[in-house]
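User: ok so my PI wants both of these folded by tonight, can you help

Assistant: No problem, let's get them done. Here's the first:
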Amino acid sequence: MGNSISPHIENAQKTGVCSLKNRGLVEIPQPLLRLGATLRTLDLSDNKLKVLPSAIGNLTGLKNMTLSSNRLETLPSDLGKLKKLEVLMLNNNNLKVLPVGLFTNLTHLKTVSLASNQITAFPEDMCSLRHLDVIDLSDNKLQALPDGKMGQVQAVELNLNSNQISVLPASLASCPRLKVLRAEENCLTLDAVPREVLTKSQISLLALEGNLFSAKELQEREGYDKYMERFTATKKKFA
């Protein structure tokens, strides 16, 4: 470990905050992993990490972890031990599959970004997280969403832009807090946008540009006026 990193880790012992962005790291420094519950915020973005050690699970005090723009292909299940995590940023890596049950115990999560990876399946264990506000799975390889589970999603914003999704489940209309749904640049036909999402959901911003229908066709779909009532009401509220 170079001297340029040592002061950052020493400082982290006092402040609980450590940023080692763009340091060319190919592995996480061992002294950092020994900080245990002391560390609250960790930023290791823009490095060359391919794997995370299981010892990452020892950082039980972490609330904010950023691992964006690395080379991660897998995640250890020990990540699920970080029960205080509120923000987890993993965008722009090489992730394809996530450990089963990874998010089950991360009950304090508010923001998760897995954008710009190669993920093929929606992480179903995210659906029950009560405090989750934002899920970003844009620019992945999702082809389908788990219909039976999507109605349980607690997020306020769900970003599914730039995937290969061909159907939006009608159960999305049951999401209790979902206000913003982004599904631009997918493979949706007009019939793949359920009427319930327009008429019965809480969604007040529905972004569907770049699919297999025009904006005019969507506007003529039955129930679109109900969606526009919510859109307009929200716009007035924040005007």
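One down. Here's the second:
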Amino acid sequence: MASTSKQNNLRQELSEMTFEEIQCLRDKIGTKLCNKVLFEAKPERNLKNFHRENKNRPREESSKKQVSRFREVIPIKAKANRDPRFGDLSGTYDDKLFRKSYYFVKDMKNNEKKELKIAYKKETDPEKKQELKLLINKYENQERSEKRKIEKSVKKAEAQREQKEQLKKGQKPFYRTKSMSHKQELVEKYKELQKGNKLDKYLIRKRKKLLQKERKNEINV
């Protein structure tokens, strides 16, 4: 207590002195001792054992400790990524319902294809005409692909219906394997190409693809 009061008296005396007088005193007794009297810091609180009255209140940190640039002020919960294709929340995919709900897309594509055909007939520039032809072919290929998909789903539904009827009658149902279904699809595709006189073009394209595949295998070897 005595030392504290003595220190306070010294501070009081120093506070009444001019800057020049303080400078002279610093030169006499030394800068370290003079600063100790003037600026001696109060004892810091032990922050490790410090308990906040409210846990939601920000934590008190020492001013001497450097603050990190990357500091989490408000904790944020990490977002869990969810793939809608495999989640139960998105429901199950029904191809028939999907086609029914988005049937207007088919009408839009048909209208676009008609407009492209009209533009193709009017176009005189060979390059632009070729671009229009490729777009028309793209639409036609999509139509054929969609048609095959519908036919496939119809046949699958028919096969399932036949299997159920056989089970009701007490007969052993016939289950078609994937290889059998694939062979049946090839036969039907062959017949379709024959009707449209497109079989030769299809076989030529197939041969080209096989040759390209063989050349790539030879280069890799």
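The chain is about 65% helix and 0% strand. The first helix runs from residue 2 to 16. Good luck tonight!
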